[in-house]
Amino acid sequence: MSFTRISEIGEFALIDRLATLIAPTESQLSTLKKGIGDDCAVIELPNGKLQVVSTDLLIEQIHFDLLTTPLEHLGAKAISVNVSDICAMNAKPLYATVSIGLSNNISVEMIEQIYEGAARVAKQYGIAIVGGDTSASITGLVISVTIVGEVDASKITYRSGAKAGDLICVTGDVGRSFAGLKVLMRERQTMLDTFAENPDMDKSTYTADLSEYQKAIEKHLLPKARIDAVKFFHEVGLVPTSMIDVSDGVGSELKHLCRNSQVGALIEESKLPILSETREISDEFEDDGTTYALFGGEDYELLFTISPNDFDKLSSFKDVHIIGKVLDASSGVKMRDLFGTDIDLQSASGFQHFTEEEDLFEDDDDAHDHDGHDHSAHNHSAHNHNEHNHNGHDDEDEDIWGERKN
Ligand code: ADP
Ligand code: MG
Known about the structure:
The protein is of the alpha+beta class. It is built from 11 helices and 13 strands. It has 2 domains: 31-151, CATH 3.30.1330.10; 167-360, Alpha-Beta Complex (Phosphoribosyl-aminoimidazole Synthetase, Chain A, domain 2), CATH 3.90.650.10. It has helices at 6-26, 71-87, 108-125, 176-197, 214-221, 227-236, 250-261, 276-284, 289-295, 311-314, 377-391, and strands at residues 32-34, 41-44, 50-59, 92-102, 128-136, 142-151, 167-171, 242-245, 264-268, 302-306, 320-327, 333-336, 342-344.
């Protein structure tokens, strides 16, 4: 048997290969409307409604760092990111299971804190946590959530329905979560330096100073699924033509929508909702806030398209921005920058902020080449990146998805 490293083919090609293997099982379920390829799988129910199902995995040191992540927030985030995938189908979340892998440095009280956070937001979203699984883990804390929701067949929204002429919309603001991550990683470094300089200090008494940039940090640690937007769509009878949640950045998600809908798009940099706090942080790190918005990820806002005829229906929802227009596939996927130049978002090299010199993930002692590809690992690689520096695991050039680190 040959040994192909995962990094040689990347996350997407891997999932494609797995999709081929599981396709025969999908065809056994005659009620399956959508298997792999959207935010949720979609199954027809006997009552004519559609059931939507999604699962997401959070792994210590890949997706979160316990030094900078309050456990309550972690539990809440595990639920919210799954609810977000249900929202992306324009569906209502109903129930979830939560499974945990536990390393021996985790106490009973710590696990309870995770569940307190999960239960708190589950209550807010109106969903029940109905079970799960518990196991030991030798590689740190693992949390896996599976979530089920429901939607009328007439309201389901896939990634694939965008048509030329549709308006491209995004809820809330974007780029802030990645800005928060940058601040958290800097604070983590300060903590590690302090511990190294004071080996005898009681680590439990050290509290991180996260008073600055609260909004960005909160967005990263405690993202909220945009169930309010879905509720609004249902209330006003608006069905977006396509929708996806923003886990990997607006630019990445737009490419998914366009590929699945076989259309092109033009968005405008000036229309991207980027808060001044996000810009302040990106300036401080000598990065570009637009890059955070396009490829930073973990905002968990909704990116969707509507028919221009539905513009009036959308107008009473305040927390949404129209950022561009759907075009024919031949137009490509582009962003008109502040100077009026159309930048190709398909190829990372077309985007000046991704040149060697101005890499989003570059800092003084290490650098990632960011290729702008749409995969969820890239902002996590900021964590890996940090680990990489401080744990001395410098023998690998690439992370598991093929992100080059130097
Ligand atoms: P999202 O970012 O919305 O959670 P992902 O990028 O994780 O979506 O997944 C994209 C698609 O690939 C989904 O339809 C998901 O169900 C499927 N998928 C991802 N990993 C696997 C896997 N290991 N086996 C089968 N399907 C997978
Ligand atoms: Mg998603």
